[in-house]
Specification:
two-stranded antiparallel sheet, 39% strand, Thiol Ester Dehydrase, Chain A, 137 residues, homotetramer, six-stranded antiparallel beta sheet
Chain lengths: 137, 137, 137, 137
């Protein structure tokens, strides 16, 4: 399998997913870090970050880790995601998502993701997700 | 416990969650149906609906079912959601989410949600989620 | 795809999984019902049924539904299971598990399972699980 | 909150849960390690460890971590567990489960668990679970 570098992933996302609104901070050995700048549209009354926003960040971090490990695979799709909401995120800090792959199989890749409000060590959410990898033609 | 009617829920959401973008179609005995009109921003390359969009609809349907069962509780929060993506949704049909509560406890309410592209019987996603209910003052 | 009948499944399990301790009650259209007789070893202090016992019943019901839908596939394996424990099961009633498949794909089959203490309409647990189907040789 | 030591947990389990068949290896800062010796009854055809056995080990590790963090709480109960089966476990090695708590709330404690066949660095399963803590009297 050919890995993809951080720059290759950024270029791919810019070309194929122009609506991808997450910043690729780092990719590593079966891992990735993604940053997201909270906007007004992401907030809920009381000044917390919405669940779908956090879900989207977790999903993006897992996708970047999949690309980094398997190379550029446009058609990988999420099949399952389990997310626990742990603490109220800051309304003013970026969200940082740290993904580690825990299984890289031929057809399924599984990773876990911790999400943090930048500057805090206590995660605001934790997710475990599965990507299905399309068979090679 | 005081239930809330469909109209009470609509009024509450309009007043307190003006950004709530889901249509309350029906509420019933420990159940709710919610509709969402897909916008361009919800689509992914290939003409599918994004995972975070589907997650948000599932979460909204569960929240409406919680309100219908327990009455107007602004502070109920999602603590866990497990979602399986089953089939490619239509890019042109509304998404319909049907939620049934499977446990109504004092502190936790659990429900499952089937999501459909309108007009199809085969679900595009299925979610199970937990809401935490704040203690009464 | 060739379906398997209730009797074919019972014969297969007796031959290949002699330790399979669940009773196949019924198989239907993408569905299965399984019964389990609680033993002393399944109980926890306070007279409740253990979590691993309930997990095993849910897993068995899903496996029987997979066999009924896809035919006899010895090598299907569980890849994911999400289980919510809802109510205290009876220590003296059989557990009945009702599984419905919600996706039958080429490589993944997903089903949900409601578990009941016999004679009660309120589920004691709910599970959603995924089986991976080995590719055809 | 009063923590419990490894010896206090072992004594409590021996007195109150005599059927608890897991070995408490270590407890630490919001963490616990549990060992389980595979028996013939835990094996499936093909020489793999059954899903319910792995589920039970994950649940036990989470319970020990809860006791270590919150002190001896007999009545804590699992409300949710999401488990991914990653690799075929060894039929001849003990299973080692490493749990870390990711949220310790007043009413809910959430932890993740990695399970290994002893001597291997690649996890055979990964679980995330929630324990509900009964309110103080």
């Amino acid at each position: 399998m050919a890995n993809a570098s951080k720059q290759e992933i950024i270029d791919f996302l810019a070309g194929e997913f122009p609506q991808f609104k997450y910043i690729v901070e780092a990719v590593g050995e079966q891992s990735a870090t993604v940053r997201y700048e909270i906007t007004h549209a992401d907030l809920r009354p009381g000044g917390t970050v919405s669940g779908p926003t956090l879900f989207g960040i977790a999903d993006a971090a897992l996708y970047v880790a999949v690309l980094a490990e398997l190379g550029i695979i446009a058609l990988a799709v999420t099949t399952n995601m389990n997310i626990n909401f742990l603490r109220k995120p800051s309304a003013t800090q970026d969200i940082i998502a740290q993904c580690n792959l825990i299984k890289v199989g031929r057809t399924l890749v599984i990773g876990d993701v911790f999400l943090y409000s930048e500057g805090s060590d206590a995660p605001v959410a934790h997710a475990v997700g599965t990507y299905a990898i399309p068979p090679k033609r």
